[in-house]
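Progress against Task 2.4 (sequence-to-structure conversion) is shown through the following example record, which the project officer requested during the mid-term review.
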Amino acid sequence: MAAPALLPLPRTVAQSHQARHVLVVPGDVELDEIEVLALSRFSATRWDVVPVGIFPGNVAGAPQGRRAQGKEVGVLRVSRHAVMNGPYLPSGDGFDLGVPPGAAMAFDIVCHRERGEPPFPAGDRDGIGRAFAVGMPEREERRLVEWLVAVARRLGGSLRLDVGGLWDIQAPGGPTAKPGAGVVLTPDAGAAIDMTVYSDVWLDPQAAHTILQKVHPRARLHMEGKEWGGPPAGIADKALYPGETLDPVLRKKLHAAADDYDIRALTGPRVLDGYGLVVELGVDGIVSVEISGEEKLPRLLRGLPWAEQGAVRYWVHWEPQDLAESQQEVPTMELRVARKRSAELVARLASAIHTAAGGEIADEDGFLVDPSDL
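Structure tokens generated for the chain above:
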């Protein structure tokens, strides 16, 4: 059965206490992708109304409600008070949606309006502070807005945030809703380049070093430490703080017991619970790989047999020379060039680790990545 023609975005579906945001995506995006990205962040995700294009037994697996009838749009609930309605045409019903050209579908997101203080004057890489210059979203609305930015970045889409009241039809003599800012954001896909490999395989430092050196010859282990010379001489004869009345003999015994404990720890078998490797890139900054155990996994990995007790986390991270510049919404051309070169290396390192250790790869926003896409 052919999919029904999409409807234009209605003027309003929000109430006075609600916020409204619009997400637009290109035509190569499938509805299943939206569902997977919601499941990746929100445990309560479910379809209240299943749109045409979502089928029983799909790979995403959000709980499903009733099927859409006729031209009815889908309703994807991501929390108790937040829903995503759509898809619609990327145009308004009698008004200009005001989004960049090239979109094929629009989604209407409604949630509780929760606003706090104006943004702190600092880096605003994703433009959220610009979109909410009067008061930043808080709690549930903030989590939703941050997710929408991540989704737009992942799918090559755009957002028009805080559109409540912009297109409402007001009844004569009725209350007039204060229009939202309606700021348009098109998140830069190149701004988030870090990747993480989650696996049940622990690569020892030398094995990881060998693997990563094949990707970049300057990869080196970063495990240097400083020798500890013990506590300062005579510390057992000094009071812990002015006026301390601890018996001097007892104080010496406590310090001696602490020294014995430290000596046993330093002379006993070393238990390695984490290590790192670095690749120094000169003007492009540094790419590091940090290896450790991790219990807090991306939502879609929780419950998998190999991840029930946590996993080994291989975090591949880029550190630019100018961290402040990297947090600008529109960084310099020099920073963008360095970022692009570093992103290619990050992807190659993550791919090499995955080939050796298996598991799953997640991007900087916590969304899973197909290794074949690297």
